[in-house]
């Protein structure tokens, strides 16, 4: 009786092929374009329907290529309370994106950085309505700070003049 030898070489080849297919799939999923699409989130903006600067901020986000959904409401205080926006950071509109809160005239560049770095925080805010910030164009732009806030308090996240990052 003739002894059969296992086809180890063929099996090893199949395993190698499977490994190669798996590696190729992982490389495709890790590519920047695919990762960017997977990370892209819709920004839900809560705003008073009569506020013009809020519409300007929404347009700024859209012009920067972000996906925005607008929900108009006259009761922004209830939304801010639900989301935990500190009273000293309140501005004229509130947004939600990927589990974060975005309060006020935060530039798109800061929102993108927030979404790429994903710090442990509640969100970002630009308190008040600084002249020259997105949606508040007109007049001489003032420097202002985007604040990162959360359970650990508040700290500067980025600085801007208009929509231009300065630090």
Which structural class do the helices and strands define?
Answer: alpha+beta
Low-confidence stretches: 8-38
* Tertiary shape: globular
What fraction, in percent, of the residue positions are helical? 25-40%
Mind summarizing the main beta sheet?
A: 8 strands, mixed
Give the mean pLDDT. 83
Give the strand order of the largest sheet, numbering strands 1, 2, ... along the chain.
2-1-3-4-5-6-7-8
Question: Approximately what portion of the residues adopt beta-strand conformation?
Answer: 25-35%
Number of strands: 8
Ends apart, CA distance between termini = 81 Å
| Tally of helical runs | 5
Order of helices and strands: HHEHEHEEHEEEE
Give a topology summary.
Layout: H1 8-30, H2 32-39, E1 42-47, H3 52-63, E2 67-72, H4 76-83, E3 94-97, E4 100-104, H5 108-117, E5 123-126, E6 143-150, E7 153-161, E8 164-165
Parallel strand pairs: 1-2, 4-5
Antiparallel strand pairs: 1-3, 3-4, 5-6, 6-7, 7-8
In short:
The chain is of the alpha+beta class and 167 residues long. It contains 5 helices and 8 strands. The chain has helices at residues 8-30, 32-39, 52-63, 76-83, 108-117, and strands spanning 42-47, 67-72, 94-97, 100-104, 123-126, 143-150, 153-161, 164-165.
